[in-house]
Amino acid sequence: MPKIVRNAVGRYATLAVAVTFGAALGGCSAQAGPSSPAANGLVSHVAEYKLRLVSTSANSSVVAARGAFGFRFEKVCDGWISEYRNSLILQGPQGGAINSSYSMTQWEDFAAKHYRFRVRDFQDGYLTDEVNGDAERLDDKVVVHYEKPVEVTEDLPVDTLFPTQHSIKLMQHAMDGEGYSNDRVFDGAGDTPVYRISAVISGAKKAENAARDEDHIVDKPFHRISMAFFPMDDDAEQPAYEMSVDYGQNGITQGLVQNFGDFKLRGDLIKVRELPPPQCD
Description:
Strand content: over 45%
Order of helices and strands: HHEEEEEEEEHEEEEEE
Low-confidence stretches: 1-34
Structural class: mainly beta
Shape: globular
Radius of gyration: 18 Å
Largest sheet: 14 strands, antiparallel
Number of strands: 14
Number of domains: 1
Number of helices: 3
């Protein structure tokens, strides 16, 4: 089964599903630094999604798929924390199946100057890959320091965005009625930690999910954000993969579709709850 199938189906949370984030209002507003209406209007939450195969081509490397993922995003006193866990079973045309799971934890400060990340990839219950490190934005560059799998430092252009910073920018575009964005984004995960992400953003649409929502936080309008992911170290004209995210105006993803070329997965929101604001001095 191709490597992009084994890895990317899990790691799309780090960039595309990093759009599935929120932040509680109040509590730490004085510490948040420069903010935008998009950042200030979001809701901290925990969400659960069910994954299913929605289409496959005749020569696809995947003929069946099922799984689930959970996402937690909250504002803490010194920044944003996001946690993502994915579990997916993929079946190939010859009958073989791969049980893949994936987790990522991120912390990003409010000013988008500091970022920490830890990624763990499992296959059939065994840890196959682990990456962790941090990044710092300086005046003229972004410096990345990896601790695992090996210690190494590399420099990125200063206009490189971190995941939460990118997500806030996309929602601000949506609120301002701007329909396109094209950005370089770093998440630190896998063989391709930097992508050029081209995004097309729709106008507001009426909520259309059936999630269990006792706090009534996903009955709000959403914007459909269609993203194409181009690896920065690849000259290919076609994206490595694409994703469409139904992104609520309060920062909660109401549904998504992941396109890997020869097959597509859909994530349906099944349960969501709001998190309380942080208690900061």
